[in-house]
Amino acid sequence: MDKNADLSYTDLRYEDLASADLSGANLKGADLSFVSLKDAELSYADLRYADLKDACLANSSLAHAIILGTDLRVADLNGVDLCDTDLTDADLRGIDLTGVDYIEASLEVAKI
Q1: Mean pLDDT of 81-110
Q2: From 11, 25, 60, 108, which residue has the greatest number of CB atoms within 10 Å?
C-alpha cells in the first residue's frame, strides 16, 4: 500500500495490512472490518465513515486522522496514537481505551 493512496469505498475485509504506511491515504467509506493494521502508519488518513469493526489497530498511529462517523466497535486500539484526531460521531463501543493516547482528540458525540 502506498502513502496517500486512494482506497475510498474499497472492500479490504480480512486483509493483513500490518506495518503498512497508509499515512495520508483516502480510506473514506472503506470496509476495513477484521483487518490487521497492527503497527500501521495512518497519520493524516481520511477514515470518514469507514468500517473498522473488529479491526486490529494495536500500536498504530492515527495522529491527525479524520475518523468522523467511523465504526470502531470492538476494535483493538491498544497502544494507538489518536493525538489530534477527529473522532466526532465515531462508534467506540466495546473498546478499552486504557493506554490509548488521545490528547487533543475531538470526541464530540462519539458513542463510548
Answers
A1: 77
A2: 60
Angle at 78 between CA 36 and CA 107, to 5 degrees: 100
CA distance 34 to 54: 5
Q: Which tens digits make up the pLDDT trace of 31-42? A: 999 999 999 999
- The amino acid present at 59, given as its one-letter code, is N
24-53: average pLDDT: 97
On whether the CB atoms of residues 102 and 83 are closer than 8 A, the answer is: yes
Cell of 106: 475531538
Q: What are phi and psi of 21, to 5 degrees?
A: -100, 100
CA angle 56, 43, 106 (to 5 degrees): 85
| Confidence at residue 1, expressed as pLDDT on a 0 to 100 scale | 64
Residue 90 burial (C-beta neighbours within 10 Å; 0-12, 13-18, 19+): buried
Strand partners, 11: 31
pLDDT in the model for residue 71: 93
